[in-house]
Q: What sequence folds into this?
């Protein structure tokens, strides 16, 4: 805990908050992109020690939350097949589809297994040559290198029974989609440190310049977040719009070039639907044609599905930063972690789950 505790120092956090309080002269709206950052903000009450002029807007940076309903339904269809072993990270098992979730499929006899790495799924495929093994490959740029390596390993081992159901999404196109929205209120971004640890932040300067918006690469601990906010506010107050790296112990400008190389060897960009937001051009990755034999959608001949979201769930507006979770009428009532209506209440990084788990559902929401 040594290297975490030093970034959770209470007196230092108060000093940073005081610095922000002294420099702010007007109201500013700052979006933290990553759901992990959202959970830290709510868990440690960072938004509550900031001056009232600073509003933190929770962004769509939760890959579980933005996985489209159609993809969840495809996962359910594949996992229901008797010849399939369906492997997934645990946080996907309770994400609701049109008719239940992966736990529902498991309760009906489907072979659904929680794994901790796509390589675990490759090992299962080795041990079970008579079964089809499918790994649910979701995530931002952070998880893509391991998924790409799993495909390459399966190819090297000559496995014919391993495939990925791919739902990768990319952060920079999502930021641009938010900035292009007619309802946009975001004036600065805290970029996700874990994504930038893989991809670097060389993609962000053109975005900052085009939209005149500060972007600060930020970590996840309280001092990381407060330093990111401090830098963003300093830029806003001085009229600057630059990209800064407030997470240099992990992130470099170029990122992990070996990881980027394996990603681009296996994946290519594609349009992607984001749950609650809609289709964003070139905002995702899919397997290249030369790796199509590992594409579960091709292997099982899945067609486009007609889906319909819950009419009372407002998670789409939460993901776009238009409302806070307590402003949804279903929050904490029909929609709880035990009875989720949307993925934002299920995911370990979902904004609704953060507000509920840390007691914010007991507060009366205040309109911003």
A:
């Amino acid at each position: 805990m040594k290297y975490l505790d030093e970034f959770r120092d209470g007196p230092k956090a108060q000093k940073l908050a005081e610095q922000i309080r002294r420099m702010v002269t007007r109201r500013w709206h700052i979006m933290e992109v990553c759901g992990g950052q959202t959970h830290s903000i709510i868990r440690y009450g960072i938004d509550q020690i900031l001056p009232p002029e600073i509003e933190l807007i929770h962004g769509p940076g939760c890959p579980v939350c933005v996985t489209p309903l159609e993809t969840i339904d495809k996962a359910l269809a594949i996992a229901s097949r008797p010849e399939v072993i369906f492997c997934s990270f645990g946080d996907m098992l309770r994400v609701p589809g049109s008719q239940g979730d992966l736990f529902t499929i498991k309760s009906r006899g489907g072979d659904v297994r929680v794994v901790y790495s796509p390589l675990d799924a490759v090992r299962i495929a080795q041990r079970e040559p008579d079964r089809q093994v499918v790994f649910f490959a979701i995530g931002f740029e952070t998880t893509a290198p391991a998924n790409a390596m799993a495909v390459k390993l399966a190819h090297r081992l000559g496995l014919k029974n391993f495939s990925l159901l791919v739902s990768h999404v990319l952060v920079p196109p999502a930021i641009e989609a938010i900035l292009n929205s007619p309802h946009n209120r975001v004036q600065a971004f805290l970029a996700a440190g874990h994504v930038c640890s893989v991809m670097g932040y060389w993609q962000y300067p053109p975005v900052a310049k085009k939209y005149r918006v500060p972007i600060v690469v930020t970590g996840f601990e309280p001092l990381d977040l407060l330093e990111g906010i401090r830098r963003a506010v300093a830029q806003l107050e001085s009229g600057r719009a630059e990209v800064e790296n407030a997470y240099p112990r992990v992130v470099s400008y170029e990122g992990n070039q070996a990881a980027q190389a394996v990603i681009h060897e296996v994946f290519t960009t594609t349009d992607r639907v984001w749950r609650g937001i809609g289709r964003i051009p070139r905002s995702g990755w899919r397997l290249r044609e030369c790796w199509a034999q590992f594409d579960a959608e091709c292997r099982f001949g899945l067609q486009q599905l007609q889906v319909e979201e819950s009419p009372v769930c407002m998670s789409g507006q939460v993901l776009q930063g238009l409302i806070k979770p307590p402003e949804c009428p279903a929050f904490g009532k029909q929609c709880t972690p035990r009875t989720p209506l949307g993925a934002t209440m299920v995911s370990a990084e979902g904004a609704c789950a953060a507000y509920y788990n840390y007691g914010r559902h007991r507060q009366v929401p205040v309109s911003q």
